[in-house]
Every structure is written in C-alpha cells, then in structure tokens.
C-alpha cells in the first residue's frame, strides 16, 4: 500500500508489475523482422520440397551432411563438437552435437514431428466407376474431411516392388505434371449434403480421388478405364496392381508455400504442423558448434496418429540413441535422462478472431508474439498432459529472455473446448524435464495452414539459444 496522500504513478507501477503487452513486432524492431523474412525464404523452399516424413528425412540428411554430420556409430568414441545423426528407416531421425560436458550432466533435446495429416491410399485402391478412374483412400491424422474436397492434390510416397526395387513417387508438384482431386457435389444439387452436420457431410469412404477419365484406346474387354490408368503407371514405374500393396502413397495438397497478407508477414502452406518446428530445430542443431551439453534434435514420425509404430516416439529409437551416447561415455542412459531436458517442439493454436468463442483470450497464443510455450496440453482437466514443472518453466523462460527470444505462453483453447497432445509424454516418461514449445498456427490441420514469419524465426532462435545456453 502507498503512503497516505502520495500519488501513485500507475503507468510506472504497471510497467514494473504487469506483463508487457507490447506487440511482438514493436518489441523486436525492424532488424529482427528482416532476419525473420530471410529465414522464412529458406523455410518456404523446404516446405515445397519436403511434404512427407520420407521427403523431410531425405532433405534433412542432405542438410545435416552439408553441416558436417556423419552417420552415428555406436562403437565409436566421440569428442566435444562431433556431429552425428541416426536415420530411422528414412522416416525419422535423431541428430546430435556432442557437448563439452558430454552426456554426464544430461542432454538437451528438441523434438519435432515430420508427419502431417493427409490422404493415404488403401492397399487395393484403383477402381473405375461410371467411366471414371478413382483411388480409394484412408485418411491419416485428424482432418476435417470437407476441407479436402475440390482442392488440387499431389501424390507422394514409395512403392516397393515384389522384386525389391524401390520406386519413389512424387507427381503433381512440378510445372506441367498432372494433379488430382476429390470431387464435391454442386450446391444446386447439394440439398441432402447441406442438411447434414459438418462431420457427416463427407464420409471417409467418399474421399475417392479422381485419377483418370479415358478408357484404354482401341481396347476390348472389361474395366478399360481402370486398365488405362494401370497401363500408364506400368509404363512410368514398371509396376503392376499388386505392387500397390507394398507401397506407402499419400495425397497431399499441391499448393506451394506463399506469403499471406499485404504486408507479407505470414506464410500459408500445407504441413506447418509440424514442419514449422522441425525446420527451426534442424537449422538450430546444424548451427550448433561446441555446446556445453550434448544437444539432440529429433524429427519424429507418426505423431499425428499417436506416435505409434517404430518410427513414432513411443518407439525406443530415441532411447537407444541416448543409451548409445551414454554408453560411449561409460554412463547408464537412465542417469543421463534424469538430468536431461527437452523442448517438445510442436505447434499450438493461434487465437483466431473468427472463432473467438473457442479461445480464452487472456491465455491464448497470438500470431507475431513469438514462439509459444505451453506448460500443459491435454483435455478435460489436463488429462493426458505432461504439465511441465514450474522449476523447468522458470529455467526455459530465463534462457529465452537472456537470448532475446520473443516468446509467449498460452493454452490450446478454452478449458472444456477440446485439447490435444504431443510427444512430450513419450520423453517425460524417461524422467526428463519436458515443456511444449512451438509456433502458433491458424487453420491447423487444414490443407492450408497459416503462421507468422516472426514466430517461425523466434522458434529457431529459441532452439538455438536453448542448445547454446550454459
Ligand atoms: Mn503437431
Ligand atoms: Mn497435428
């Protein structure tokens, strides 16, 4: 309380006591905005080249090798500054820079995922109906199905022929290549569809992709529309229909990453979740020279379907990697993990004024306020959440502040509105300290997500500062 008759300067007091609400752009200034723009030119190129987990790992291996990383050899002893990577089946990856202290004081991990929602092919996809050739699909991850109709799609993935030959597929990205689409009913005849709820309007079995409309020329016999497409695929890839059984093929939006807004301040693209954290985490580890602590960037697969499978983070591959690093120094993995920390690098929901009722404005993350921290995720009373310890939150905000990282903290929407999870659980299970850190996204999980360039750059700066901190 102030003394009687003494006037309080509320402005001064607010500056001292309350959270700073200056806009992010004003806080960092023009120079940082320029750096963000430059950083995001690289990010947009990456988005256009790496739309699936396999393409991301190929891209990342090349970037890592250019930055001096070599394949990890568990038999070898490493010294401070050495750079190694482990490629898990071409779909997930761990990259490490050995620290001056090695692993004995714990390691620092940034873990992002590189899979994203998409439309996968069924094992027996090709069929014809009413003189059109189509592919049956099974969607991957949490999508709003109606958003995936009537947009251009490209086909990505891998086919392993019976004879073992591997065929990489990428069609619909380059100028002049065909693209594909899932049709929708015209509004004139949409009465039945329009009467349904959004979640029922398009059924999973209706996500059939249009891939041809001509029959085999001069052909006689059955299924000439299907046969014509199979014939084209045979000529192009040397495959027969049964080879599609041993394949992983996905349709993704064929859009290129573009600037959004008159001010060019944002990027619209497919797959920001979670390439927008993966790219900065990869760039940060590549930039990391001789850190105090051993630093690791993990690029994980399968997060969108629960981190399952041997390339998801519920698998032991990160643990084996850490155990091998530990063993090379004569340490037990559990002792390393217990002293380790991790930034679970995944996107968060940016406040959207069009859907304000889903958010609690005072505890949301906003575009251009920097990289977002989430102490906890989960839903219905923090269920299924990591809920970072206050001690670790304090450590991270100190590191970010000292590194001039623009950051904010928020929750994913209103308390009872829904929720989500990340790989934080898979790493906290090893008794490491984990907090969720990521870029706020608009239209998350849609075919065209939006982020701010400043936030992308601040994610990079955040991971870099975390790796370099003493
Ligand atoms: Mn994610
Ligand atoms: Mn997601």
Would you write up a description of this structure?
By secondary structure, the chain is α/β, with parallel strands linked by helices. 29% of the residues lie in helices and 23% in strands. The protein has 13 helices and 22 strands. The two termini are 40 Å apart. The mean pLDDT is 96. The chain binds manganese (II) ion (2 copies). Residues 113, 273-274, 303, 346-347 line the site of one manganese (II) ion. One of its GO terms (molecular function) is zinc ion binding.
Computed CA radius of gyration, to the nearest angstrom: 24 Å
Small-molecule binders here are:
manganese (II) ion
What is the subunit arrangement here?
A: single chain
Beta strands, count:
22
Quote the beta fraction.
15-25%
Distance from N terminus to C terminus (CA atoms, Å) equals 40 Å
Helical proportion?
25-40%
Shape annotation: globular
Query: Helical segment tally?
Result: 13
Largest sheet: 9 strands, mixed
Would you tell me the structural class of the helices and strands? alpha/beta
